[in-house]
Amino acid sequence: TNPLSSSPTAGLEAPSLDAMGRPGWDGEPGEVTRQFRLLSRKVHPDRCKAERATDAFDAVKVIHGCTSRW
User: Fold this and answer.
1) Could you tell me if residue 24 is left (phi over 0), alpha (psi between -120 and 50 degrees) or otherwise beta?
2) Secondary structure class of 24 (helix, strand, coil)
3) With the CA atoms of 43, 55, 35 and 13 taken in that order, what torsion angle do they form, in degrees rounded to the nearest 10?
4) What is the per-residue pLDDT for 4?
5) How far apart, in whole angstroms, are the C-alpha atoms of residue 65 and residue 52?
6) For residue 53, which of 12, 15, 45, 49 is within the disulfide window of CB 3.0 to 4.6 Å?
7) What is the pLDDT of residues 1-18, one digit of tens each?
């Protein structure tokens, strides 16, 4: 079973796992960047007045750094 199937992934479907167990998404090459931009606009501290907006924005940047290498 896929351990990531029940986790939210910023609007993307749950990833499939390759033969080495690494997550991967089917789709257009720019889809990860597009989703990153959409989500980062929602949680950017200048736009979002939530108390932990900075933490959320930092987390989105880290996730994008990890997923954009695939």
Assistant:
1) beta
2) strand
3) -120
4) 42
5) 20
6) 45
7) 444 444 454 555 666 777
Distance CA 12, CA 60 (A): 14
The strand pairing partners of 17, in sequence order, are: 23
Q: Which two tokens stand for residue 9?
A: 């992934």
Distance CA 70, CA 62 (A): 14
Q: Which residues pair with 24 in a beta bridge?
A: 16
CA geometry: angle 32, 33, 39, nearest 5 deg: 90
Those residues with Cβ within 8 angstroms of residue 24's Cβ, 6 or more apart along the chain or in another chain? 15, 16, 17, 18, 70
Q: Which residues contact 34 (CB under 8 A, 6 or more apart)?
A: none
49 vs 24, residue with greater confidence: 49
